[in-house]
Each structure stands twice: as structure tokens, then as C-alpha cells.
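JOB MANIFEST
job_type = single_chain_structure
chain_count = 1
residues = 349
[input]
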Amino acid sequence: MNAPQNPALGKVPCTIITGFLGAGKTTLVRHLLENAGGKRLAVLVNEFGDLGFDGSFIAGCGIEGCTQDDIVELPNGCICCTVADDFVPALEKLLNRPNPPQHILIETSGLALPKPLVKAFNWPAIRSRVTVDGVIAVVDGPAVAEGQFADDPEALKAQAAQDQAVDHDNPLEEVFEDQILCADLILLNKSDILDAAGRERVKAEIAQHLPKAIKVVETINGKVEPALIIGLGAAAEADLAGRPSHHGEGEDHDHDDFDSVALPLPQAGSPEELVARVAKAAEAEGVLRLKGFAGIPGKPMRLVVQGVGRRVGHHYDRAWGADEARDGRLVVIGLKGFDRAAVEAALAG
């Protein structure tokens, strides 16, 4: 009797990296590129917004062996909503290169649902050429600890019984749940910001959302042994039934609950001054995530700023090009109708 064939044999493995806004997906991708061990990696990076910031953040980092051609940006909306128009053609372009990648990393938007993307690997144009090696969900530990995704179903039920006007629909909760429900591995990132009790509390919170045991690995700044991420052999596209979702097979998925805009980010006298402006902008009603870059007078490198919740970080990522305009930009992602005027006022200083 012949041994059963591995359905993924001979296909280029792809790792889908999902996670909510600001969880640390791009940092994880950079870490994997920096520790590729000679393997030819390529990256498809998608952002929900007007500025393809994450792609430039990766491509400009000077990683040995990683060229501009290895980074493909899909900035035209959520990757799980533009499969036919953007994702499949971009994947085919990578596969048709004379020296195709040995592994492809796919970083989704923070608002993307991973299951429709996994399902797309069954499309006739690509199903014989690629496989989903694994889905990695990056979780922002401190955000979960702060209760952003800790709705109590019993408490909500009690509220509903007392006040029929209460709206319990939480789109952020659904996005978070769909991301971890599809995962083969969950990274609890920024674990160094939590104490031991906090880490256990977050793990327990994650477990409440999962119908099956999924390994949770604590990470700091997305640093993890690449062998834990690459080579899972999950063939996730053949396991759709084991990856439940809030969105049924016939339902459309859109982002009507969210807005994004790219705004000018004026130069500041110092990194501290710029961070203060961004932190104030982050306090505006409805703002979820900010990320961008700006120039600091007298500094040859551009300063990257990223904020989620009350946390704003910054670092210099690369030197400005000789002919590059030092025009700062900031992507702001928030709930629909967020207070843009307050954001712009904060950034103006």
C-alpha cells in the first residue's frame, strides 16, 4: 500500500501573521528576516490606511539578503477583502520570479480577518503552488490586560435584560477573536510590560476565547526562535472547518466601523516633543492606533513613532535619502467618526 501523499508537498510555504493594531506584527517580520539563516524569504505586507508605512519600515531596515523586490506592499485596503484584485496577483508575481522565495511571510492589516485569506489559498490559480504553513496571531499583552477585549458574556446578558437599548456589538472584539481562533500559534507580545500575575491573567483571557488548545508563547519585541514560526506544516487551507469565525461563509466583511487617514507630521525640536504631540493625539476620542515618521532638525535619520492606547514608542530607523523630502506623515486609525480635528490640533503643537 502506498503511503498517503502530503497535500503540501512541493508547495511554497506561507506564514500568515495576524494580530490587532499595534500588537507587534511588523517587528516580528523584521526579526524573522534578520534571522532567516540563508533561506530566501519574501514579504507581502498589507496596511489598512492611506500610507504604506509598514512596507517601507521593513524594506528600509538594511537587512542583509532582503532587497526591495522581496517586499510587496498591498496598501489598497484590507487584504482579506481584496483577494482577487490584489493578493492572488501579488502572490503569483512572487512565485513567477526566476529565483522564487523559499518561504513567504504575509503580514495582514490589524483589521483583517485571517480566515478569508486562508480560504484564498484554495483558489485554482495558486492552490497547487502554495500552502499556509501556519497562522501566527500576535497579541498585545498589555492591551488585553487593560480589558480592551475582555467582554463578559454573562454581564452583557444581564445588561441586556435590564436595558434593551444597550448595543453589545463590539467589532474590535470580533476581529480579535477571529484572529486567535484561526491561529496555529499565539504570541503574547510585550510580555515584559506585564508582571507574572498579569501574564497568567492574559493567558486565561485568551483561553476563554479558544475552543481548542493553542500554544501561547511569551515574547518581547517580537523576538522568538524562527523555528517555532517557520515550518509548522499546518496546511491551514485544508483545515477551514477547524478555524471558526464570527463571519459565516456567505457574509461579507467590511470595515465600516473604522476610519483611517494619513496626516502631515510636522518636524519637532526633539524626539520627546514629537512623542508628546503624538501621545496627545492618541487621546482624541475614537483613536485606536497611530504610526508614522518625521524629521528632527540636525538628525540624519528619520524618527519612527508608533502609538497604541496610552503607549507611544519611537526610534530612528534609517537615514534620509539624499534627494528625499523630509516630510513627516502619520497614519491614524480609529473608530468611524473619530475626532480628527483634535488629532490635527495635537499634532500642530
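[summary]
The CA atoms of residues 247 and 253 lie 7 Å apart.
The first strand starts at residue 12 and ends at 19.
exit_status = 0
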